[in-house]
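Entry:
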Amino acid sequence: MNRNTPFAVVLFAVIGMGLFSTPAQLQGAALEVQTGDQICLVGNALGERMQHQNFWETLLYQRFPDKQLAVRNLCFPGDEPYTRIRSKNFGDPNAHLTHSKASVVLFFFGYNESFAGEEGLQAFADDLLQLVEETQTQKYDGKQAPRIVLVSPIAFENVGDPNLPDGVAHNQRLAAYSAAMEEVAKETGVGFVDLFTPTLALFEESDERLTLNGCHLNEAGYRALAPILDAGLFGDGGPQQIDESLRQVVDGKSFHWWHRYRAVNGFSIYGDRGKAGFDGTYRNVDVMERERAILDQMTANRDQRIWAVAQGMKVVGEIDDSNTLPFINPKTNVGIPNDPNAKRGKLGTLQYLSGEEQQKLFKLPPGYEINLFASEEDFPELANPVALNFDNSGRLWVATMESYPHWKPKTKLNDKILVFNDADGDGKADDCQVFADGLHQPTGFEIGRGGAYIAQQPDILYAKDTDGDGKADHIDRRLIGFDSADSHHGIAAFTWGPGGKLFFQEGTFKFSQVESPYGLTRMSEAGVWRYDPRTEKFGAYINFAFANPWGHVFDRWGQDFIADASPGFTYWAAPISGKIDYPAKHPGGSQHRRIAALTGGDPKYSHRTLYEKRIRPSAGCEIVSSRHFPDDVQGDFLLCNVIGERAILSHSIAEVDSGFVGTEVPSLVRCEDGNFRPIDLQFGPDGALYIVDWHNALIGHLQHNLRDPSRDHSHGRIWRVTYPERPLLKPEPIAGASLDSLLTQLKSPEHRTRYRVRRELAERDSAEVVAALDAWVPTLEGDSEQVEHDRLEALWAYQTQNHIDAALLAQLLASKDHRVRAAAVRVLVSWRDSVDEPLAQLQALVGDSHPRVRLEAVRGLSFFAGDEAIEATLGVLEYDMDDYLQYTLDETMRVLE
């Protein structure tokens, strides 16, 4: 390739005329394998998903059964030739290729880079050329340079969903980037496989949907891709049918390699916290690196089973792993002389009380009562519960993590999502059903869109019961690319926003790259993510140096608050949720000083918190909204404290200037049992408050070895708080209710009732929901607070359905209630690509009479660009400023300038 020619211009012109075509069947074989080859996949999500959909690898062994080939998948979603972000000390790409003794490297690039379009094509080609040339100088196997094959991106599938891109523009770019990869292959003499052209034809010819979202293949897609990749690599004549018995063995090998390479808790293995967990002899790094070595050995054992099955040998019984190294079993550091954790009040007791005994140790304000809804005593499955949600039928779902903090090789991996039902309404669970099992560290989850979204770092799974037996029988890796550096900082605090987006959070030390049909999003060192399952739009909602955010809740008017666990801080979200691009972050979080050199901002700056923190750490949070509770606590902010006082802390919230100020008031719940670990809470359909009790004497990663034998893996409780002087709620049916009934329930005073109604509406047919809303909105007459809120609920319901109602939006932007106007500004910003003159509207809103509306407008302008946006933003200086407004102005100008 002549780097001085206008390569990108010429290539895009050729693509635009439809003249580029390099069908895979016209190419020669890209690779000739040799006995004992160690084949490593490097690159983006297309390659990464192949270890979970092992169709191509199975065909590889079927084609070459006697070659004793081994495959190691080193791909990460979002990886580009020279941008591959990782948590600390993960190791550079050459180190992992050397560990795997790679003799063949398959590079999967081009998809994420293609979003740079014509302007980025030359840089991509140059980077890829440099990468190939550098790789050709390596001897990963200690003998010779690896043989290299460049594998193009697949085409983008038009799935026929108006909420998703049709792929026309994507495919023009992808064709150009595929052609650039072929040119690099020719110049460097390496192999090339064109997947773009055959998959473009495949998508056009297939009646079956082959992708999850247009860009990422589903199981059927990977099954169809397998023979295409096989032919591109090795030529025609390969097997066309998958040997399912062989694939099962390949699945087992990939499972063990996955847990070695993408080890959860990497920051406590090879990262800084590997030095923690000292038992007098061993630290985390000693114990856990031994387990990774064992996983290497178990992976190699499964290679041998693969070769035997591929050659048709008869194999029986389990794979023999007796040749692996022994585990290192540290001693407990609980009860050592001058135990520092006991002195700090962090330890509970290894003498666990029964639920009945524990209940006697609770302290609540006058008038409140607490009862045990469920415990491990009646339901042994309830081990280490970590999160809860109520479904639209009123059942309580709970995530459990028996394997916490880390699955141990050679043991059964079986964390769960449980469903409890209180059929007789007596406040105690009558039965428990397993919705999903075989999980690993489900630190958070949320119900919705006909199933459940479940955190299983580095993935978010989507699980669905398709046959009606109550157990998930369809599970896919819906979102991938999150970091796995720390299960303690794992994806958590799932919540649906009022406009139908799913929000969830990650803690510090983590470096994530997530692909979508709209491009790649990178975020490091903590933040809050936002995902729209309808449009598949994905991105960072808050990019802020939290330590470990584990709580997120929206109030009645759509304002949200984030609880950061480790420092015990809580933040009002609006000022820190403006646009900021990786690697920059909004300054002022608890980890800001540590990372400011990378992310920008004054390292000494500390951002204002919702209330003055008295004690730490925290976890889940909730806002009181239940007629079953007294009037004087409505709107209070509740927060789980898991160590300092083991309590449900409470704060009154007042509007001050543009934002909010919290004041701590007496705790709602305290317990003198040191093993009480409240970690999540939510109001149920009956109006009672339900609390997840992790119930463990030990807590945290830093204080104890990951394999400390005193860690408990069997206890867990759900508590229920009531106020007997006031009646419990009698909820109307939500699941399966008529649209008229659901819209009426959007008027409910209870936030969680409206929350579940919104979730139900999101699952209904869009055309029917929109038609019902069109009929309902005109009946909302007057301008009372209730009616204005009803209209706001309607606007959010339209937003959830991805239906633009500019007239209703304009009406609410002119509401007399500043809370409604502020919420409407958020919707305006979300709809900025679909409504008329959004910039001009925001410019007018910068001059609103209320400072919160002005702040929302200034925040919204961070998503624009150019001099007009700068001028509109600076217009806020004509009005009184407060700390929150000034911060939001500074951050918006930081992006615009």
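The chain has a mean pLDDT of 95.
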